[in-house]
Amino acid sequence: MTLHKDVMLDFARDARTGLEEAVLCASKSVSHLSVILDQVQEKGRHMLLTRLMPEQFSALAQSHRAAIDYDPISRTGFFGGAHELRVDTRIAVVAAGTSDVAVSREAARTLRFYGEPAAEITDVGVAGLWRLLERIEEIRKMKVVIAVAGMDAALPTVIGGLVSNIVIGVPTSVGYGVANGGQTALNAMLASCSPGLTVTNIDNGYGAACAALRILRAT
User: Fold this and answer.
1) Mean pLDDT, consecutive 10-residue segments, the chain of 219 residues?
2) Closest CA to 75 of 25, 29, 34
């Protein structure tokens, strides 16, 4: 099999949408990833890699690994660097618990790839509401809030009732029993009584970050 025939990267996507193609690495072979990285390098471009597992990263050639800024928590990599970082911070990424950090960090890293710094606020779930209230003034200063939560996923609803910012909820697959791999969190956010709350798919920190970027660029 000729691997390069299986790979058709969309190098014009940023011109159409303002967002470059990202490579979802999950389920891809190391051989396919190597072909993709070679093509990106030949074009002199850079690319965001998502769901890049540590074992995939370790199996890449040293020359490819050296060109990747890799974060194992979020399983994201910047191949060939990232966009220049803005000075001001306009987005808060708020996680209910430390178990949600893999998803919240995916959102923050996606924003960082595009040069958008994020205020990362973690472990402020509503079971200890005082923790959120201690940070609420900081959150109110942001234009967009990405709220990441599993289990009963109450955090985005509570934040939506306390701030005037745009709030994007990200349900996570964290939780026991009837949490059902994030389905309960997703349904809770979709049924939220907080008007205007926008919701992404389960564990989709990348999608939430892209939505935030589109919102900021439109405004």
Assistant:
1) 67 88 93 94 93 96 96 96 94 96 98 97 93 96 97 96 96 94 96 95 98 93
2) 25
